[in-house]
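I am still getting used to backbone structure tokens and would like to learn alongside you. To get us started, please write out a protein record for me. Start from the sequence, derive the backbone structure tokens from it, and show both lines together. Once you have written the record down, we can walk along the chain together:
***
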Amino acid sequence: MRKVVDHIFRFGTGACATLSCALLLGIAGTIFLRALPALDGSLLAGSADARFAQGDLAFQILGTLLLVSTALIVSTPIAVGLALAKSVYLGPGAARAMRLGLFAANGVPSIVFGILGLVVFAKFLDWGKSWLAGGIVLGLMILPTMTVALVERIEALPTRYLQAATGLGLNRSQLVRSVILPQSRGGLVAGGLLGLARAAGETAPIMFTAAVFSGATVPDGIRDSPVLALPYHIFVLAQDTYDVDARTRMWAAAFVLLSLVFLFSLVSLPARLHSTEEARFG
């Protein structure tokens, strides 16, 4: 009976995995086929004018990379501090409360972060639409993802590493600097790249704080320095569904964004696998 249950479970797991992969490939293939007419050399021409006859996406890609890079710079030190506090410095009760708070923060809708950024940066600080405001908001949004990934890596460290370091007389700060942080880099890299994959596709936070549809190039300051971004570009083009050219460029922009997100996820995979191998055999 147990073997029958095991076979059924394996079959069900394989069927679910196959269905998920088929759905992913189907969605990606549909986007590629619809984007194909617009995938030519003019796609990266680099015009700041988002006219429907152009369809170039160079500044949209640049703006998206600027936003997610800023988000990574903002969120990394905070994620490291929170992860160390939860795993090393806090007691069991406070650590459980922090874990609950991280999971709750990870479930906050992105539009809430966008409204918060609008109130704080655009209204209170009078920055207007600013690439820095958008990067900070995205950084706060991906912070729980990065922190949880790093916490899981720290807690998966072999106990003999910590026992050996303690036996050598290292205090808590030396233990963090010499053992925990060097051995947890994979978790931080994986969490950061997964967070970037999420941030790259978000529309609501940057719509309120950082992105415009046309007229922006490379920002030259902080206040009133918006950028073009792929998610917002797709959002605007999707509202003009009666224009055939707009639909074609919308699918082209969606394909570029999907490729960018896939690249972040693909780069994060070796780091996650390396972290898992170290935790299992290290």
